[in-house]
From TrEMBL:
Residue ranges constituting the AMP-dependent synthetase/ligase domain according to the UniProt record: 10-103, 114-312
AMP-binding enzyme C-terminal domain mapped to chain residues: 364-442
Protein name: AMP-binding protein
Cross-referenced Pfam families: AMP-binding (PF00501), AMP-binding_C (PF13193)
Residues in the signal sequence: none
CDD domains: AFD_class_I
Length: 463
């Protein structure tokens, strides 16, 4: 997926165009191309070339991009991980993979003739870790074409072009934000990469940004200071209620999509009319595996040019394939036929079995987010001696340290009675100032469940 060849092409045609802007400054396309070329010569000098796996863990997002693109130019596969990982952590998460090099310091440029290699669509050109919150992360690997060939389709849907300034306000270890940054460079736009959520600097970043890629819970912050923004590309989770209306009032168009790190794009909602297949994607909703009855729900399967190759080291994971090119990661949705809107209800393995009923947490969360004062919410199953589990809601208040600023439990329960079936209604209610999140911005459901089981301080029971 990396776009070293694209950067070299843009450097030849628009050398003075700003390519990337990070915490330490900015680089034009000509300057970025020179840094990538010099770093690729350094890697080649260390024997890193075609077939090699180059682990990359750098705090500076610009240096991370340089290293990843240099590995691409040298013919290696970059594997991006956390910059806070020490070498012991890297050794643990990559034990089955054995990378040929760990790049944990900016690569020094080496002078010499240009490094040139023909980039092939089938090259294994990018690997990243899944955003799972428990166990050893899985490294997902994909071909170059599985992402770069989707750039024209995304540009057609969003109107993104070479004159745009694209804000990428999150860590590049996330495939969502990595794609956004590299898509901007592939398109010839300017990628603004603070490396994390910019907080108090958000308004300054938005002053000249025309596009932002982000996760839904960050959209309200962006809409408070829209600046020059015209398009928000939103992925990672469902939009919160009223998000499109708020964006319309701010003059910002929202293009939302559904996908997964293993699947890339699956469906897109470009106008508020609901999710429909992303260009080139076929979708089926099949009966749940193992004979499980999902009632009105089934399992989402996709077939497209944008799918990942799988997991490095033959790691086990949710990705499954059939013999006809279809894949699934276990997400569930309402019944679907061609031409209809796809209604995704979440990951099937997160379903709560309570008293013989199956409850999808996302169904409950969607209703509870409508309550004033609920910043976000996670629903999990808590063990119960006779029911198996009971539905438990953890409300994010965003205020205070004890959770006492949460909406009254009576209001939450009244909303649940109006919008949810009996089995779906939470029996237990908690509040926290903020929820833990994965690198893509999704609430880390497994971490929250662990907090409850261990009685972590800071979680307040709502009575």
């Amino acid at each position: 997926m990396p776009v070293a060849a694209h950067v070299m092409s843009h450097a030849a045609t628009r050398p003075s165009r700003v390519a990337v802007r990070g915490p330490e400054g900015e680089l034009t396309y000509a300057e970025l191309a020179d840094k990538i070329d010099g770093a690729a010569r350094h890697l080649r000098g260390r024997g890193i070339g075609p077939g090699a796996l180059a682990a990359v863990g750098l705090a500076d997002p610009v240096e991370l991009l340089v290293a990843a693109l240099a590995a691409d130019l040298a013919g290696a596969t970059p594997l991006v991980g956390g910059h806070t990982w020490d070498r012991e952590r890297w050794a643990g998460v990559t034990a089955p993979l054995r990378p040929d090099v760990l790049i944990d310091r900016p690569l020094p440029p080496v002078p010499g003739p240009p490094v040139r290699r023909r980039a092939r669509p089938e090259d294994l050109a990018w690997a990243c870790f899944s955003s799972g919150s428990t166990g050893r992360p899985r490294a997902i690997v994909r071909t170059r074409a599985s992402w770069t060939a989707s750039y024209p389709q995304l540009n057609a849907l969003t109107g993104i072009g070479a004159d745009d300034v694209v804000l990428v306000p999150g860590p590049l270890v996330s495939s969502l934000y990595a794609f956004a940054a590299l898509h901007a460079l592939g398109t010839g736009a300017t990628a603004v990469v603070p490396g994390r959520w910019p907080g108090g600097a958000l308004a300054a970043h938005l002053a000249d940004a025309t596009v932002v890629h982000l996760v839904p819970h960050r959209l309200p912050d962006v809409l408070e200071h829209p600046g020059s923004l015209r398009v928000a590309v939103v992925g990672g989770a469902a939009l919160t209620p009223g998000a499109r209306q708020a964006a319309d009032r701010a003059g910002v168009r929202v293009v939302a999509y559904y996908g997964a790190a293993e699947l890339s794009f699956v469906a897109v909602d470009a106008d508020g009319g609901g999710l429909r297949p992303f260009p080139g994607v076929e979708i089926e909703v099949r009966d749940l595996p193992g004979g499980r009855r999902g009632g009105r729900l089934g399992e989402v399967w996709a077939r497209s040019p944008w799918l990942a190759e799988g997991y490095l080291g033959d790691a086990a994971g949710p990705l499954r394939r059939d013999g006809d090119g279809w894949v699934s990661v276990g997400d569930v949705a309402e019944p679907y036929r061609d031409g209809q809107v796809l209604r995704v209800r979440g990951r099937g393995d997160g379903a709560i079995q309570t008293g013989g009923a199956t409850v999808v947490p996302e169904d409950v969360e969607e209703v509870l987010r409508r309550v004033p004062g609920v910043g976000d919410v996670v629903v999990v199953g808590s063990p119960h001696p006779s029911l198996g589990a009971v539905v438990t809601a953890i409300i994010e208040t965003g205020i205070g340290e004890t959770g006492q600023s949460a909406p009254p439990r009576a209001l939450l329960e009244a909303t649940a009675r109006c919008g949810l079936d009996v089995a779906q209604r939470p029996r237990r209610w908690y509040a926290v100032p903020s929820l833990p999140r994965t690198p893509t911005g999704k609430p880390a459901r497994a971490v929250v469940a662990g907090w409850l089981s261990e009685g972590r301080p800071g979680i307040s029971r709502l009575s």
